[in-house]
Structure formats: structure tokens, C-alpha cells
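Q: Could you write out the predicted structure for this multi-component system? I'm mainly interested in how the pieces pack against one another.
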Amino acid sequence: MKLENYIHIKEEVKEALKANKPVVALESTIISHGMPYPKNVETALKVESIIRENGAIPATIAILNGVIKIGLTKEEIDHLGKSDNVIKASRRDLPFIISKKLDGATTVASTMIGASLAGIKIFATGGIGGVHRGAQQTFDISADLEELSKTDVAVVCAGAKSILDIGLTLEYLETNGVPVVGYKTKELPAFYTIKSGFDVDYKVDSEEELAKALKAKWDLELNGGVVVANPIPEEYSMDYDEITKTINDAVKEAEENGIKGKESTPFLLSKIKDITKGKSLDANIELVYNNARLGAKLAVELSKLEK
Ligand code: PSU
Ligand code: MN
């Protein structure tokens, strides 16, 4: 088996990894299915520059023409943002998108897979998938959680949003040995807001402290990921009651329309954006920038420990 037949690592990323320099993985579902054009492309490019400004090399991951690409060009990011033919690709989709030479936007799960194959330990994004509300009946549990249970990548996100059942998501992560860490917070943030009403497992106050814990986890082969929950900056956080009502309305509409499976998350995100007249999108973009900053700093600290 030749891995090179399936994966292409951009030269800059390859060199950084070889020299043990900090690299941060980024997903592409957020580009193709998480935000509308052209804000998706603008955001993706700005995230890459924020990562550079904070001392790391960005590696946005996607499948293009059947090849897992680790690190994309501007043109490739633009294509992912514009094209209607990019399939939302989680773990189960990879073999078919690859063998049919299609384009796929990687979710948190499949971005973790790509990052891990390339040797990247830190991944920054907006939100992870989780246990959906009503999962007791629908069984809708994101493959992201299963991936977190086995693949050694730390995912910096803004907590879990309440389109999910946050309590059940935390239970699932606990069962699977996935630490949920709050960056300078004891409370798990809920994506658009700082508060969720749930506690994290551990609060860390610095990137260095967190990097040490990651190193200990993986040195001991305690396989699997870590959820690093980084609260949205206060000035961009949304009104708790407004966003709660909005999400409830969106979830109801999804139910009424029979939306399920992989369509569920993109449908809810777009509904929430419409109901809030774009305010949720602005918050979403800011929290992604904030996660990119932390992801880069964390990658810098981890690379120091690995030297
Ligand atoms: N949450 C967001 N924006 C996103 C996603 C989640 O705020 O774009 C995407 C991520 O790629 C995540 C995926 O991995 O949705 C989860 O989808 P599902 O619930 O179908 O597994
Ligand atoms: Mn699902």
C-alpha cells in the first residue's frame, strides 16, 4: 500500500512537519456546507493567515479529484466554496469519494483522519458534531464523536451548540475517554454563547499547560482526541435567550421537514443564519478566528515539547 497514492501533502506543510514546526489542520465542510459563498472563502483564507500570524503553518484538508489534500491553494479553497458538487465527506464516505475521484469536503471526523495520516496533532474549527436532540429515537450521533474516541488529534472548537443535546454529547465523550477541556473557562461554551449550563472536565489557563497534557496522553498511547473548548470572545457572543429560541425554532422546522442524516447540521446552520438575519454567521466567523489563534499557539507549544 502506497499512502502517496491517496494523499498529497502540500510542500510547505511537508517541510514544516519534517522540521517539527507547528502545523494546524483545518476542515473544509465548514467551507462547502457550513457557510454561504463568498463569506466561506473569505473566512477560510483569513483563518489561514491568522494561523500564520500566530506562528504556525495552516493545512486545510479536503478531497479533490479523489486525492486527500493536506494543505490547499487559494484556488482550491475558492473551488470548495463555490462548487455545488462537493460532497460532505465523513469517515464512511472517504473510500467512495476517493475511488470515484470526486471532490469531498471533510468533516471534523475525516479532517482528523487526514491530519493523523499526515502527522498533524492540532486542528482548529468552529463546532463539532455531537449527539443530536432526540437521538434516543433517531440515533443521530455524529461520527465526529466516534473519531474523537480513536484518532490522536486535539480539536479546538467553541464548545457544543444547542442544536445538539449537550448533556448527552458530554456523556458520550466521557464514555469514550475523550477529555473536554475549557480554555480559561470552567463552563463549556455553547458556540454562539459563553454559557451552556454544563461544566468542562478540566480548565486550563495556558497553551503550555494544555500542550503538556496532550503530550502525556499520547506518550502513554491513550489513543483518541481531545475537545478544546474555547469560548467565543464576549463582544461577539449572542444573546442567550434569542439564540436559544432561534435554535428551538430551527430544530422544529427540521423535524417538520423530515430533515435527517448528514443534511441535518447544514440545514440547521443555514436556518439559524436566516432567522437571525446573518447575526449568527458573524458570530460563527469570529469564533472560528478565535479558535485559529488558539490552535496556532497550542501547536507552537506542543512543537516545543516535542523537540
Ligand atoms: N458545526 C458547525 N459548523 C459546521 C459543522 C458543525 O457549526 O460546519 C460541520 C463540521 O464539519 C462537523 C459536521 O464535523 O458539521 C458534523 O456533521 P454531522 O452532524 O452530520 O456529523
Ligand atoms: Mn448526524
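A: Regarding packing and overall arrangement: The CA atoms of residues 46 and 289 lie 8 Å apart.
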